[in-house]
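Dear support,

I submitted the protein below through the web form. The confirmation email said the job was done, but the results page showed an empty box. After a refresh the structure appeared. I'm attaching both so you can tell me whether what I see now is the final result or a partial one.
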Amino acid sequence: MKVAVLGASGRAGSEITKELSARGHTVTAIARKPEAIPSATGVTPVAGDASDAAALADLIKGSDAVISALHFDVPAATILGALKTAGVPRLLVTGGAASLVVAPGVLLFDTPQFPAEWKPIAKGGITFLDDLRQETDIDWTFFSPAALIEEMPRLGRYRTGTDQLVVDANGDSKIGFSDYAIAMVDELENPKHSRARFTAAY
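What the results page shows now:
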C-alpha cells in the first residue's frame, strides 16, 4: 500500500513510519525537517508543510491513504481539503485522549486530573474530531491513544475501545509509541473503524 505520513519526524509519526516500512508498505514521509525522519526500507523523506493544502495535495497524490501524526495546529478542513484535491480516499489521524469518555457525560478533558497546561493543545484535538464527524466524503479514522502515551518497551499487544478510556486492572491507561504504531497500521490494513474513533491501551 502507498501511504503518506504527515509529521513523520515526530515520536508517533516516526514509529508509524517504521512500522509501515517493516510491513512492506511504500511510505512518503512528510515533515518540515525531513532530515529527522528515520531511514527505513521503502521510506522516502519529503519536506512539506501541511498547513498549505495545495502543496500538500501535490505531495500525497497517488497515495492509498494518509496518516496524520501532526499536532492540531493544522485544522481538519485543511487536511481533508488536500486529500480531496489529491483524490486520496482515506485518512487516519493520531488523535488525542482528552475527548475520551471516563464516566457518563464526562470527558477526560473535564476531570481534575487532566493537566491544565495540556488543555490548549487538547482542545484542538477535540475540535478536530468534531470536524471529522461532519465529514462524509473521506473515509476517516481518529485514533485516540491511552491517557498516557510514552516511550515504553514494545509489547506487541494492546486492547481497543471506541469512545471510552481503556484502563487496566489498576485503573491505569497507558501505551507505548511502538505499540500505538502497531495498532494504527493494523487499522490501516484491516479497517474496523470507518468514519469513527477508537482507542487502545495495554
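Response: this is the final, complete result; the empty box was a page-load delay. Residues 119-132 form the longest helix (14 residues).
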